[in-house]
Amino acid sequence: MKNQVQLIAYVDRAGGGDLADLRRLLQTDLPGVFGGVHLLPFFHPIDGADAGFDPIDHTRVDPRLGTWADVGLLARDAEVMADLIVNHVSSSSPQFRDFAAHGLQSPFARMFLTYDRVFPQGATAAELLQIYRPRPGLPFTSLTVPGGQRHLLWTTFTPQQIDLDVADPQGRAYLEGIIETFRAAGVSSIRLDAVGYAVKRAGTRCFMIPETYAFIAELTAKARAAGLEVLVEIHSYYADQIEIARHVDRVYDFALPPLVLHALQRADAAPLTAWLAQSPRNAITVLDTHDGIGVIDVGADAATGRPGLLSPPQIDELVETIHRASRGESRKATGAAASNLDLYQVNCTYYDALGRDDWAYLAARAIQFFAPGIPQVYYVGLLAGGNDLALLAQTGVGRDINRHRYTREEIAAALGRPVVRELIELIRFRNRHPAFGGTFAVVPSDPQIVALRWTSGADWAHLTIDLSQRRGVITAAEAGVTRTLPLLGSSLG
User: Fold this and answer.
1) Which amino acids are annotated catalytic?
2) Which pLDDT value is given to residue 247?
């Protein structure tokens, strides 16, 4: 994977509506800005129960977006990442419909995980309550097949997303077929979506258990054999991310977004810099994604009680400050206020989480780009987008507040805003400067100052942000020339 900033976007929401339009956007409006693009689910269909994360056919491009040939054309210009949705398939998939129609006589009957497969002797209340799930309630949905036989399906997320039995040959063959489809289309990286929930065992939390690590290692080996790099997507206790990073190509740094917010909100750099001193170096860094702003990633370990990167009072203040900064809009989209809720996330654009403060927003992006790893920028974040209350009201899905459908005209207007122009210049600096291929260090400093440095031979780049004084500067040396870069909103603060 190129050590350059990547774009992450829904194909149909980033202006124009299809893969050809997205390619034109990258070539015409954003030439050379992104080294790669993560295409959020573009499979058939893109508008199911979970915005494409419940594919009916994971090996087919939604025809409204184009074809695999269009994916291949895009891959000629930029590295393409795609999602391998590991944990589940759509209840409308042909495999599940065959099972629903024929029960145990279906050739796909063993492909789907049922309650009795995990608990053949039944489960105690304690065992059921131990199961970790990102939604309220237990992860089961009842199905009655012809003949009256009833099955209790495992449905971690929604009743429309049926969990796979990844230990079964049919489940494994299904996933391996998707990997081969990606390889043939020119996809260079895959994200293992929801893989932390894929393995279930009686008497455990059914989330990130030892067997999960073994499964991730096995699936990663298959992907690597096909020439694909692997990014693992897991929201969990921070120490889990450090452990997972030892076994895969890339992990997300999901602790970074809340820690940056805390630093800017409270003028307190200590938790952020403590994390950056130990965070995985093979990370994909983000501030915003198609999901919400994670909280679990900086919280205590629910299983053992080990302390988190932020204390419970600090997390409470973080969440309340986001609600205040967004003028209460994030509260309308978070928790029980909206369907499809995630218990561990606040739904809000990152720009609104910072109160639409241009200086703070650029400072946050500078920290992200200096943090260890390869940065990804979400399409709404690229355009410093605000909360979409109209879409939230239309769908009732909390995360849609941060999934605006941009027209070409809206993108053109956003690209003319000073904050967006400065962000793009910051991206170009991160892509080009040779120091970012070297060694990272957190520079000891005052708790109210973020000081980060990259060094490669005689080349170096240094970021200093005084949180209390709201001042920031990048100084950099390249080929013996040292300069100061006005990339922190000097005209905006």
Assistant:
1) 193, 233
2) 82
